[in-house]
Amino acid sequence: MDRFDWGDENLVSGESLVNYQAGVAVYDGNDKTPFEHGTLTLTTHRILWKDFKDRNTLLSLPLALVVFIEEQPSGFAKSAKIIVHLQAAPTNKSPGPVTHSPNQFVRFSFRESGEKEFFRDFNEQLQHRKWEQVIPSSTPAGQGARHRAGIMGIERTIQQRNKTTDKNITQAFQDLSKLMEKAKDMVSISKSIATKIKEKQGDITEDETVKFKAYLLSMGIPDPVTRETHGTGDKYYTELARQLSNVLEGPLKECGGIMTLTDVYCRVNRARGMELLSPEDLLNACEMFEILRLPVRLKTFDSGVKVLQLQTHDEEQVIHTTTDMVEKSGSVTAEELSREAGVSVILAKERLLLTEKVGGVCRDESVEGLRFYPNLFLTKAN
Length: 382
Description:
It contains eleven helices and 14 strands.
């Protein structure tokens, strides 16, 4: 841990983002640290870890200090990990969370999966070593490496490079602007057609109107809330929360009233098209649901898993249903309940843990994994 320093999210020249994974804990060797739940970001130059609750806590680890990495697969009640072996801390290192550590490695624990893709991208960046690459300066033809261009030659080279860069950027933004305009036009057309069809009577049934409108609007969220249209701060998050609640209420009803925040993030950004949300903006908006008394709520399980659920979601009914499923099957794992109930494995496990918490089921931990059984202590006592 003494290789980490307090960093920031500003990228240096030539640095770019590669991968991002939520729900990651940091270990100093085999020892736990206070950095238990955050987001891990891989760039071409660094590893960044940002705390989920304290947004100002951000750790930075230069890839130049990494010797090699290895995978540690998930096991019995243990999440998969990436072990990062490190060089000694440099003498001129910036301040960090730890001044001295006896360990020569750290571990990143992936509690919401995603470790395989992250490990693959991590290895690629270590092989490419982009943090060592320096943009070479142009050398006039016929001159050897020992000949240096004069100041005027250097200035001309820089001006030419800047001119080329500006031209490429301008062209790229023109193409991007055209694409965004097309996307906005398509959404506007879909809204217009849906409105006209809804107003049309006689020829088209109400069911067909609703269905066709759904097809049209599935192309994207019309008029997504952005910082450009709604400002910054609480006003932006308030309007974003209202829109998210409106958009997610239907999908939540379809999937049983509850959805992981990871699934919500993917679904919302897929619908927003070009106006993508950052994880921080999504989380801040979701935290406004209860304050605004919206029909959707943000809930954090004891394990740290964050979900969105309808305010009308009945946990007692979920516990009762889960208890019945376990009794009928004799015993279940999270994977088996996931298939039977039609929910993700993460939500299935949380349902079993919630039911266990109130005494509805009992667990059995063995080399085969975690399995839940009916609570005979409770039923036999009756």
